[in-house]
From TrEMBL:
Keywords: Glycosyltransferase, Transferase. Residues 6-170 form the Glycosyltransferase 2-like domain. This is Polyprenol monophosphomannose synthase. Belongs to the glycosyltransferase 2 family. Gene3D superfamilies: Spore Coat Polysaccharide Biosynthesis Protein SpsA, Chain A. Pfam families: Glycos_transf_2. It comes from the Bacteria.
Length: 241
């Protein structure tokens, strides 16, 4: 069995799911794949089930209903820990994250990082095909997070990451509050509060060409207000390990 697992949450990703799975397994990097599908009505899970006949390292967990990005990753983290993976990745299904960069993120963790972030902003702004308004919103959101929380992460909302197992064993996953993109901020903030070494690895982020974005006003509002709440709550928590 591989020591590395990439977790890919899906909801209506039939246009992308086969291509992303084939791409990961074509890397010859000994990385298994876990798809967390939230009851996609478009048949995403059926495509994955067919591919399981071809790829022994492909796993599928199906959930009933759209339960949120954060809960999907928490489900995947617990599954990964119970199956003894050492390097555990988060990655989108839509090719906005280049699977080739999985190897670079893992190398960063092998070489001393506890969490390696695929960062759009650590070396300028490396985003392709996003409208300028979306780029500015994302860039200034990270500035806002740094201002409120004090963490020095250039890409605070990044969702392309590699964790060493010890990080996910240490963080009380059931206490992670947020389910949208604020989840990404909360995981980074919590890892840093526990004293883990979080590093940023420069990547080029390319917006999806197939399927539909899951971003919404509700998700953005959760992130904006949640950062303040998260910072206040941290004053009353212990982060000893």
């Amino acid at each position: 069995m591989s020591n590395s697992l990439v977790i890919i949450p899906t909801y209506n990703e039939k246009e992308n799911i086969e291509r992303i799975i084939r791409k990961v397994f074509s890397l010859n990097a000994d990385i298994d794949v876990l798809i967390i599908d939230d009851g996609s009505p478009d048949g995403t899970a059926t495509i994955v089930q067919d591919l399981q006949k071809e790829f022994t390292g492909l796993q599928l967990e199906q959930r009933s209903g759209k339960l949120g990005l954060g809960t999907a990753y928490i489900h995947g983290f617990k599954w990964a820990l119970s199956h003894n993976y050492e390097y555990i990745f988060e990655m989108d299904a839509d090719f906005s994250h280049n699977p080739d960069d999985l190897v670079r993120l893992r190398e960063a963790c092998i070489n001393g990082a506890d969490v390696a972030i695929g960062s759009r902003y650590v070396k300028g702004v490396n985003v392709v095909n996003w409208p300028m308004g979306r780029v500015l919103m994302s860039y200034f959101a990270s500035m806002y997070v740094r201002f409120i929380t004090g963490i020095q992460i250039q890409d605070a909302t990044a969702g392309f990451k590699c964790y060493r197992r010890i990080v996910l064993e240490t963080i009380p996953l059931d206490k992670i509050k947020f389910v949208g993109y604020a989840f990404q901020i909360e995981m980074k903030f919590t890892a840093i509060k526990y004293g883990f070494n979080v590093v940023e690895v420069p990547i080029i982020f390319t917006d999806r060409t197939e399927g539909t974005s899951k971003m919404s006003t509700k998700i953005f509002r959760e992130a904006f207000l949640g950062v303040i709440q998260m910072k206040i709550n941290s004053w009353f928590r212990s982060y000893k390990r």
